[in-house]
Specification:
about 45% helix, three-stranded antiparallel β-sheet, Phosphorylase Kinase, domain 1, Transferase(Phosphotransferase), domain 1, alpha+beta, elongated, 3 domains, about 350 residues
């Protein structure tokens, strides 16, 4: 991947910088929407990770370390997006789950915001795939089921991750997986200002994340992204981007995904591969609608087609409804015909009798 031009890459806070009770040690990572630092918590004497809100396309840092918009037109948008980042941090701080990154607090300083999180020892799933290659089915399922437990807690609170991909999944030294780097603030920026290609990750983001408002997204959105992550782990490449898959007919898109997954049926069970394929349907209504539904497909082969059953049931109900509507309409017209026939017979009787 080409290096980001320096003019679009804001300078990070220097090592030794004091941010309230935290001392910056160095940079852990830098992306399009923020910089993550390793820092020392001087009160509790422990390492923490601190994510600074820094959307590089609309913000830059001054010599006094404050963050400001690149021009006046972006000022209100930057402030609005920063408020979303702060709200996200406060929401995440309410969760205490083994598979969700722990957020301790949020700091508003330097005209921006900082999310203080637990510092985890291990590697990203992206790094693990590069190093170890294709995981076994047990390894993949253990990771998936752990992350689904975390996602279920988030979804019950009506919170969506929106940016699940190998780089945002961290594998601890004990092998457990944890979700990092939530995408709510980025999605908000995308809807308000930036081009959506800068907000979503091609291959992992479902179709509704490109063209649908945030209120059209739900658990099925995260399920797609986790399914795409599993697809990448199995095949070595992410699935075809949702915008391209959506150009195919339903059957063509399904076949495109399944034909590739089926190549690995000797190493992975068919029901696991089917569960992953279901999660990648272009139409979000054809995917598992909840974590519990998808978990059932992953844990029990006998219900691996439960999404199909649900769709079949819906189709049957719709057909039944249409059939009943037609029957009702036919009965209505029949009643009118019978009524008119009776009136005609009465009129004929009267005419014959009296005339």
């Amino acid at each position: 991947m080409a290096e980001v031009p320096q003019k679009n890459k804001p300078k990070p806070l220097p090592a030794g910088y004091e941010l309230q009770c935290y001392t910056i040690k160095g940079v852990l990572g830098q992306g399009g929407f923020g910089i993550t630092y390793l820092a020392q918590d001087n009160q509790l004497e422990r390492d923490v990770a601190i994510k600074e809100f820094m959307p590089r396309d609309i913000a830059e840092r001054g010599d006094d370390f404050t963050v400001h918009s690149i021009n006046r037109e972006m000022s209100d948008k930057l402030e609005w997006a920063r408020e979303r980042f702060v709200r996200e941090a406060r929401t995440l701080s309410k969760f205490n789950h083994n598979n969700i990154v722990r957020v301790y607090t949020v700091i508003e300083e330097n005209n921006t915001a900082y999310m203080v999180m637990s510092y985890e020892h291990g590697v990203s799933f992206h790094e693990k795939l590069l190093k170890d290659g294709q995981p076994s089915e047990d390894e993949l399922k253990d990771m998936m089921l752990g992350l689904l437990d975390g996602l279920e807690v988030l979804h019950e609170a009506r919170f969506i991750h929106r940016d699940i991909k190998p780089g945002n999944i961290f594998i601890r030294e004990d092998g457990t997986a944890i979700l990092l780097d939530f995408g709510s603030a980025r999605q908000a920026i995308g809807e308000e200002n930036m081009t959506l290609t800068k907000v979503v990750t091609p291959g992992y983001a479902p179709f509704e994340q490109y063209y649908g408002r945030s209120d059209m997204q739900g658990p099925w959105t995260d399920i797609h992204s986790l399914g795409a992550t599993c697809y990448k782990a199995i095949t070595g490449e992410p699935p075809m981007d949702a915008t391209f898959r959506n150009r195919y007919t339903g059957e063509q898109a399904i076949s495109e995904i399944w034909d590739e997954l089926d190549k690995y049926s000797k190493k992975y069970s068919t029901f696991l591969l089917h569960a992953i394929e279901h999660s990648l349907r272009s139409n979000h209504k054809e995917r598992p609608q909840s974590v519990s539904e998808w978990r059932a497909m992953l844990e029990d082969p006998s219900v691996s087609t439960q999404t199909q059953w649900r769709l079949t049931a819906n189709s049957y109900n719709n057909k039944t409804s249409v059939k009943k509507s037609k029957e009702k309409k036919q009965n209505f017209y029949l009643s009118i015909a019978v009524g008119l026939s009776i009136v005609f017979i009465i009129l004929v009787y009267i005419y014959v009798t009296y005339f």
